Amino acid sequence: MPAITYELQAKSGRARAGTLTTPHGTVQTPVFMPVGTQATVKACTPDQVAAEGASIILGNAYHLYLRPGHELIARAGGLHQFSNWKGSMLTDSGGFQVFSLSELRKITEAGVKFRNPIDGSSHFISPEVSMAIQNALGADIMMAFDECVPGMSSHEDALAAVDRTTRWAERCLAAHARPEEQALFGIVQGNVYPDLRARSAAALVPLDFPGYAVGGLSVGEPKDKMYPTLAATTPLLPEGKPRYLMGVGMPDDLVVGVALGVDMFDCVLPTRLARHGAFFHPDGRLNIKNLRFREDPSPLQEDCDCYTCKSGFSRRYLCHLFRAEELLANTLISLHNIRYLIRLMESMRASILAGTFPESHMSYVPEAFHDLVLAARA
Predict the structure, then answer these.
(1) For residue 266, what are the β-bridge partners?
(2) Within this chain, do residues 312 and 338 fall inside the same structural domain, yes or no?
(3) Are 19 and 9 in contact (CB under 8 A)?
(4) Which of 267, 296, 326 is the last residue of a domain?
(5) What range does the domain containing 11 cover?
(6) β-pair partners for 185
(7) Residues 273 and 226 reside in one and the same domain
(8) Beta carbons of 169 and 128 less than 8 angstroms apart
(9) 194 and 158 both lie in a single domain
(10) Rounded Cα–Cα distance for residues 218 and 216 (Å)
(11) d(Cα 138, Cα 38) in Å, to the nearest integer?
């Protein structure tokens, strides 16, 4: 039997509502996945994250390889047992993290040599090593080892990365040791060049991965390049398999991504922004450090059902916690931000099932991209 199954339940234009079933549960899509880089969603307990509606989270194979080590996690029973997360889990391959170390790494056809930014030690990750790491971690979904070039790279550099990503994807499939327990997703690359996205998809789709990711977007390119590139890419992916846009978590990006046919998203933003006092709100991104919140008795958001808002924590209290550098501030604002994005995904799913999407969510879409989103409705 396959490690995962995906059922497409409804469409509203390109937007999709589906059900993804993994060995650790059912995931309703479209879905936002909080990121637990070091086997923890920062400042939050697993039960708190689950209570905000998260059914699947992400772990980072690169960071977990460096510490505490994938062998240790395997001896502990795998990443689920090690971290006490009971829901579904995805691990990325480490490709993005390795390639972001431009001063510390060297790429060859065999793989990537790099220096550990923590202690300077030398390491090597190849497609085969990445598969061994992720097989040891044991997440429900794992990602192929790919080459991600910076946003707005040259066509020549992006072409080389696309073809290497394809060759590495074939090696990943050959090295994957647990296909009946863990689903391996391929990653479509190509930077902002539609012809290269088409080239990448044409090479990867015949390999019959259980799901496909769109990588190499939201890595420095402007949105007027990102959105049209995504619009050109999603129709190239199989209709009956999940589609994952990697590293995206701003509300406008989520709405546009869903409108263009994406099912899964992840990003560190909810917790990263929280550590700087920023919280999501229908009026935009606000910051609890602002003086105007010092005596504000309101919750972060009046109609929010997150733990922080429904439990009566006020803006003035959270402002105090943040200014006093109390750790509870990070937890309470993180929970709100996580719930805000999950609630947004839930509302989009409901509107797709009702046939009212994307009109129901156009307030999130920058005006310059209304035509792009509405065109996907046809």
Answers:
(1) 33
(2) yes
(3) yes
(4) 267
(5) 5-267
(6) 143
(7) no
(8) no
(9) yes
(10) 7
(11) 15
The residue count for the chain: 378
pLDDT band at 118 (very low <50, low <70, confident <90, very high): confident
Which among 210, 175, 194 has a CA at the least distance from the CA of 202?
194
Please give the Cα distance from 366 to 316 (Å, whole number): 31
In whole angstroms, what is the distance from residue 343 CA to residue 173 CA? 35
Phi/psi of residue 88, nearest 5 degrees = -75, 160
As for how many domains the chain has, the answer is 2
Residue 374 lies in a domain: no
pLDDT tens for each residue of 234-278:
999 999 999 999 999 999 999 999 999 999 999 999 999 999 999
47, 92, 140, 263: which is the annotated catalytic residue?
92
Same domain, residue pair 192 and 312? no
Q: What distance in Å separates the CA atoms of residue 159 and residue 378, rounded to the nearest whole number?
A: 32
For residue range 320-365, list pLDDT tens digits in order. 999 999 999 999 999 999 999 999 999 999 999 999 999 999 999 9
| 43 and 166 inside one domain | yes
The answer to whether 208 is a known catalytic residue is no
Based on the domain organization, do 164 and 238 belong to the same domain? yes
* Distance between CA atoms of residues 378 and 369, nearest Å: 15
Q: 98 pLDDT band (50/70/90 cuts)? A: confident
* Consecutive H or E run containing 200: helix 194-204
Considering 140, 146, 253, 266, which one is annotated as catalytic? Answer: 266
Position 148, amino acid:
C
CA dihedral 183, 188, 191, 194 (to 10 degrees): -150
In a domain, 377, yes or no: no
Are residues 175 and 127 in contact, defined by beta-carbon separation less than 8 angstroms?
Answer: yes
Q: Is 266 a catalytic residue?
A: yes
Per DSSP, 46 falls in state H
Classify 326 as helix, strand or coil.
Answer: coil
